[in-house]
Amino acid sequence: FLPQVDSANAGRVLASDAAVFLKKSGLTDLVLGKIWDLADTDGKGILNKQEFFVALRLVACAQNGLDVSLNSLNLPVPPPRFTDTSSPLLLSGTASSDLPWAVKLEDKVKYDAIFDSLNPVNGLLSGDKVKPVLLNSKLPVDILGRVWELSDIDRDGMLDRDEFAVAMFLVYCALEKEPVPMSLPAALVPPSKRKPLSVPGAMPLIPSSASTKESHQSLPPVGILGAKTPLTQ
User: Fold this and answer.
1) Residue 217: DSSP 8-state
2) What CATH number should be reported for the domain holding residue 63?
3) What is the pLDDT of residue 228?
4) What does each C-alpha distance from 92 to 95, 201, 203 come to in angstroms?
5) Residue 225 pLDDT class (50, 70, 90 cuts)
6) pLDDT at residue 48 is higher than 80
7) Dist CA 71 CA 73 (whole Å)
8) DSSP 119-170
9) Could you tell me if 162 and 190 are in contact, meaning their C-beta atoms sit under 8 angstroms apart?
10) Is the distance from CB of 186 to CB of 99 less than 8 angstroms?
11) Membrane-spanning regions, if any (predicted)?
């Protein structure tokens, strides 16, 4: 990875170069900022090779649902994933189109029934209609905001049937005390949302919309939830 961001071969990475590269991870700016703060130990805005390695490890931790902290550095995680097919680490693994969807068929039937009961318009549910269902889970508002951000895969502020199933899947995982990942795992991306990859057999990539999105364009319910008082259906 280092040659991609250290074009001058100086053995260090500037904040501006690192920011462009790290955004390809599909993680939110908030998470990337935390990763940079942990890696840039002396606060100079420059990473040496060791610090850059720490940043990559933290990206991998975040992509696999682990805490972004120095305590996670020694945990076993797969290599970080970036939407740059020139990287050799992206040329192994199974194509995302071949991965079975993590949402089981019997669960999908249940989620579809809830979806239909919320009166979708043109096959879409607005944030206002999804909000009561999310709040009904009694999960913390910041977790629900992340659930929305991950499930609104095309960033249109609405959830279709498949995106709603992803949201429900993540809610039930959180209720089982499983961590909600910082970025959507390839197996959770609905088959209808998977983009064909230009490199045969490439590692599953996070949809490019996740990395190009500006934070003000997304409409997570956390912004419209307001008070933390859960609503009941």
Assistant:
1) T
2) 1.10.238.10
3) 41
4) 9, 6, 6
5) very low
6) yes
7) 6
8) --BTTBEEHHHHHHHHHTTT--HHHHHHHHHHH-TT-SSEE-HHHHHHHHHH
9) yes
10) yes
11) none
Confidence of residue 90 (pLDDT cuts 50, 70, 90): very low
Same domain, 129 and 56: no
Instruction: Note down the domain range covering 36.
Output: 12-72
**How large a percentage of the chain has pLDDT more than 90?**
32
Within a domain: residue 57? yes
Q: Residue 7's pLDDT is what?
A: 54
Q: Are residues 67 and 131 in the same domain?
A: no
Position with higher pLDDT, 180 vs 210 = 180
Which residues are within 8 A (CB) of 45 and not within 5 positions of it... i.e. 6 or more apart? 14, 15
Is the same domain home to 116 and 160? Answer: yes
Residue pointed to by tokens 């501006």: 16
Residue 100 and residue 187 in contact, taking contact as beta carbons nearer than 8 Å: yes
- Claim to verify: residue 142 and residue 188 sit in the same structural domain: yes
Closest CA to 168 of 206, 125, 119: 125
Q: How many domains does the chain have?
A: 2
Q: pTM of this prediction?
A: 0.49
Kindly report which listed range (95-104, 125-134, 155-164) carries the lowest average pLDDT score. Answer: 95-104
Task: Please state, in angstroms and as integers, the Cα–Cα distance from residue 56 to each residue in 14, 80, 114, 117, 186, following that order.
Answer: 15, 6, 39, 43, 19
Q: What is the DSSP string of 30-60?
A: HHHHHHHHHH-TT-SSEEEHHHHHHHHHHHH
Give the number of C-alpha atoms closer than 13 A to the C-alpha of residue 204, restricted to the C-beta side.
21
